[in-house]
Fold this protein.
Amino acid sequence: MNMKGIKIFSPATVANLSCGFDVIGLALEIPVDEIFLYKSNNPGIRINKIIHGTSFSLPNDPKKNVVFVALQSLLKKYQQQQKFDREKKIGFEIELIKNIHPGSGIGSSAASAAGIVFGANILLGKPFSTMQLIRFAMEGERLASGTAHADNVAPAIMGGVTLVRSYKPLDITRLHTPNELWISIIHPQIEIKTSDAREILKQKILMTDAIRQWGNIGALVAGLYQENYELISRSLEDVIVEPIRAMLIPAFYELKIRCKEIGALGGGISGSGPSVFMLSKGNHTAKAVTQVMNHVYSPLKVDYKTYTSPINKQGVKWDEIF
């Protein structure tokens, strides 16, 4: 099948999951970015249209956009493999609908980067493996945050909950996702850049804190496979990053306390924030948790959005256009 264009749906993601800083992430069903990608006979990459919310803007310079950088990385490798001469070079044209707010902490840059490389791979006949696609998408993350991390792009591409075992060499595995695991998210409409949120982190940590964190990561993985929701709940503890970043998010601790009081398993900061996530067993509890999030934030002078979603087990999805 020789396709010229496809529509891609690339999901928001939650990284860290409290204790799993830079190594654990999961994909959401909502919100999603929409990308129209067309293969062109004209060499190069062109971003023809970007539609986004009125509350934020994206760079006009294509080289400062993560979709350009991630796709450029893929295209360069493809042309090296095919040994194309100048006359045979191909290109892409892009239309991007951004539904995931940049700086929200729910993987806005990762959705763009993951979606574009996933779609290009399909149009080119799937020459690249999943791990290669993650590497290309990580270059978009490098542009966005200064670090080529995979904890957002991996679940966006692979779906479900993912674990980055190693970055050198890159080794990522997909974990078991319990069917009843749901997530509630509140996104305060304040911007926290990932690069800024990383700068405030300590470069050294106590051995006692490290041991406690390792125990929580191992128990969280075990809890997912055993579908042991009580163990998952006990594992959602971050003693290293959250205490520092929590000061950047209004009413953070009140959110956690109130949500757990009505049945949430636990949660924390999504990525570098400002979004806060809470995991729950079942749709009913997750919706109740989202309502509590609204109750906590409605008196505050801060605009916000909330989402209630199951875990997206597929990751990036696509429809054929022609």
Q: What stands out?
A: The domain at 5-175 is CATH 3.30.230.10 (Ribosomal Protein S5; domain 2). The two ends are 10 Å apart (CA to CA). The longest helix spans residues 207-226. The chain has two domains: 5-175, 181-310.
